[in-house]
Design a protein that fits this description.
This protein is an all-alpha fold. Helices cover 77% and strands 0% of the residues.
Length: 429
């Protein structure tokens, strides 16, 4: 197998000259290790969004409860909060490739079991919730494992374009996944969703096996598990921009992303759409994010990263608020598309900024803290679900949109460096 490049030191000085040869998407995909990591992420990401839509529709049909629909997103994200920091430390101690291969195998088996339950007609809502929780547990390793591996195999000097291409792909899966989920749920029912998911996860498992990866050599500190975790937190506290980035991550995940759990509810109850059109509506967000991610990957430079991250977050929250007031499918579709543009700025820069901000020996731990920050989203899901049960889905989304914009504005006042041209790479030794 191909060995991962070892040239990356993670300490590229801010004044370093750019590479003499252009490093484009074609060059990136010619890296065999990156290509297989990218394929595995594409396959698993498609199923993640496909299942999210299909299971939300299933739960809504079974229970007619907006709160329980919101819980589907809660159980997918909560493992990141529970286990994100732990997986960051574990990833420094166990070969990341082994963790990734094991995770894809677990997801394959879980989807087969859930498909059999659905096919035999014994599946219940709690089964679906348990399956989502297991999927979310594996997903909690996404940032400290797969995305950190991506940065290592291409080198930190190219991590911006690597994360941009990966984010574009994730956003493509956000576009195609919900649409496929609506089609499969309508034509093959829930068992079709799970069996297709099992096939995709198995292909992702095979792709992970083909990754040629040698971890970055890091000298052992001899420190205990929790002491090692504390070292990562201490480093983060010493860098104001990193703290600000993580705070914005928490805010957007609490007041932004939970709205996706209400798209199916609003589509069915307010816009009177069937499962396929609900999938189209959700997919338009992915289309906008795909286009913006490709533009970011090919055109953004490192001094623009924090601004792209911040302004993308604002655009996302603004469009969520506007979507909640829309009475027509024809208006909702472009609004959700614009929200996708904002998501792209947020999601692409989220991983990139955190990864380039940390030296190699701390990278997995800092990415683990990012996972925990993302994992705060379930708090917003519970908040949104409670509001939706009380006031209705559309009104609930309006409220979280306003709350999120207020919170984000306060964050900008506290961390004004987020709106400046800032290079947050660690200083050279």
């Amino acid at each position: 197998m191909e060995r991962a490049p070892t040239r990356d030191s993670g300490q590229t000085p801010a004044s370093a000259a750019p590479p003499e040869q252009p490093y484009g998407i074609g060059t990136l995909l010619s890296n065999r290790s990156f290509k297989y990591l990218w394929i595995a992420g594409s396959l698993s990401g498609t199923i993640r969004w496909l299942e999210t839509l299909a299971i939300a529709v299933f739960v809504l049909e079974e229970t007619n409860s907006a709160f329980l629909v919101a819980l589907t997103l809660f159980f997918r994200m909560f493992p990141m909060f529970l286990f994100g920091a732990f997986t960051g430390v574990i990833a420094d101690r166990i070969n990341r490739k082994k963790l990734m291969v094991g995770g894809m195998f677990i997801l394959t088996v879980t989807s087969v079991v859930m498909g059999v339950l659905a096919l035999t007609g014994v599946i219940e809502v709690w089964h679906a919730m348990l399956g989502i929780f297991l999927s979310g547990t594996v997903w909690s390793s996404e940032f400290p494992v797969r995305r950190t591996m991506m940065g290592e195999v291409v080198g930190m000097e190219h991590v911006g374009i690597a994360m941009g291409v990966d984010a574009a792909t994730v956003n493509f899966t956000r576009m195609i996944g919900p649409f496929l989920g609506g089609v499969l749920f309508t034509t093959l029912d829930l068992q079709g969703v799970y069996f297709v998911g099992a096939a995709f996860y198995f292909l992702a498992f095979l792709s992970a096996l083909n990754v040629g990866y040698t971890p970055t050599k890091i000298a052992s500190t001899g420190l205990g598990f929790f002491t090692t975790m504390k070292g990562g937190l201490t480093y983060i506290r010493s860098r104001r921009p990193i703290v600000g980035i993580l705070v914005v991550t928490i805010l957007v995940n609490i007041w932004g992303f939970p709205y996706t759990s209400m798209v199916a509810v609003i589509g069915k109850e307010d816009l009177h759409l069937n499962a396929i059109l609900i999938g189209v509506l959700a997919s338009s967000e992915g289309l906008g994010a795909l286009i913006a991610s490709l533009l970011i990957a090919t055109r953004a430079n490192i001094l623009q990263y924090t601004r792209i991250y911040l302004y993308g977050s604002f655009l996302f929250l603004i469009t969520i608020l506007a979507f909640s007031f829309s009475p027509w499918f024809a208006l909702s579709l472009p609004l959700v598309f614009l929200g996708g543009l904002g998501i792209a700025g947020f999601a692409t820069m989220q991983s990139t900024l955190i990864m380039i901000s940390a030296p190699p020996e701390l990278r997995s731990r800092v990415m683990g803290v990012l996972s925990v920050s993302i994992g705060t989203g379930p708090l917003g899901v519970l908040h949104l679900g409670g509001l939706a049960s009380w006031l209705g889905a559309a009104t609930a989304v309006s409220i979280i949109g306003v709350e999120g914009l207020i919170a984000l504005t306060i964050a900008v006042l506290i961390w004004p460096e987020l709106r400046r041209a800032t290079d947050i790479r660690p200083p050279a030794d």
